[in-house]
Design brief:
The complex is a heterodimer. By secondary structure, chain A is an alpha+beta fold. Chain A contains 4 helices and 5 strands; from the N terminus they run E-H-H-E-E-H-H-E-E. Chain B has one domain: STAS domain (Transcription Regulator spoIIAA). Classes of the chains: A alpha+beta, B alpha/beta.
Chain lengths: 145, 101
């Protein structure tokens, strides 16, 4: 697949970097001229994926979160959020709405539901003890659509 | 993220502004909980018209405050969320538990 443009960055799993990740992704996507709603959807999905890595993948520890954002042909946005944390034992269960392993922190268990709902496609790959990779795609409306 | 709590016609109004994510929800949660426990308001309105971003961390924040205020004999209302925040609220089904105006 042809990549029209790409940005890659990594950051430590500090919660303060959740907003930094949203800001970097938003700045990069401005060139694709998304609608306010599309940009809001993507920012929210990125925030959920990064928060999952901070809260769950590196619980009680620190590690690196790597983000890749690509502009693909046909106005498709590709986003990958990768960690090398604890991994997910049961992806199907983790993706069930309202399932959470951190109710004491008031995690609503809606992170994957938001990603699924706000993006066109969501893929989660995880190996316990090795980490998790979340990839998402969303096609922006063409001007005049 | 900013939180300003005032009284309006006998109702407690917590005016929030800025972004709600996992990082700053903790701070708002602590401040709102202190207020709910010390004042025990009959009604607390979370005024969200100046919230510019909210992910599912905001749902946890609202649900947790709703539970606490119910335990204290009061009720919570969420006021004027922006359309893109309404979409996150709708996805969670929280309007079945908390009044959204």
């Amino acid at each position: 697949m042809e990549i029209l443009n790409e940005i890659k960055f990594a950051m430590p799993s500090l919660s303060v970097n959740e907003s930094a990740a949203r800001a970097v992704v938003s700045s990069f996507l401005i060139q694709a001229d998304p609608t306010v709603e599309e940009l809001s959807d993507i920012r929210t999905a990125v925030s959920e994926a990064v928060t999952n890595a901070v809260v769950h993948a590196y619980r009680g520890t620190k590690g690196s979160i790597e983000l890749t954002v690509r502009l693909l042909p046909d106005r498709v946005i590709y986003i990958r959020v990768k960690d090398r944390g604890c991994g997910i034992k049961d992806i199907k269960q983790a993706m069930e709405p309202l399932f959470t392993t951190a109710p004491e922190e008031e995690r609503s268990g809606l992170g994957f539901s938001v990603m699924e709902s706000f993006m066109d496609r969501l893929t989660v790959r995880s190996v316990p003890g090795r980490g998790t990779t979340v990839t998402m795609r969303k096609r922006l409306t063409a001007h005049g659509d | 993220m900013k939180l300003d709590i005032r009284t309006e016609n006998g109702r407690s109004v917590a005016a929030l502004s800025g972004e709600i994510d996992h990082h700053n929800a903790r701070e708002i949660r602590a401040e709102l909980d202190r207020y709910i426990i010390s004042v025990q308001p009959e009604e607390l309105v979370m005024d969200m018209k100046d919230i510019t971003f909210m992910d599912s961390s905001g749902i946890g924040l609202i649900m947790g405050r709703s539970k606490l205020i119910k335990e204290c004999g009061g009720r919570l209302e969420v006021r004027e969320p922006q359309p893109y925040i309404k979409r996150v609220l709708r996805l969670s089904g929280i309007e079945r538990i908390v009044k959204i105006t």
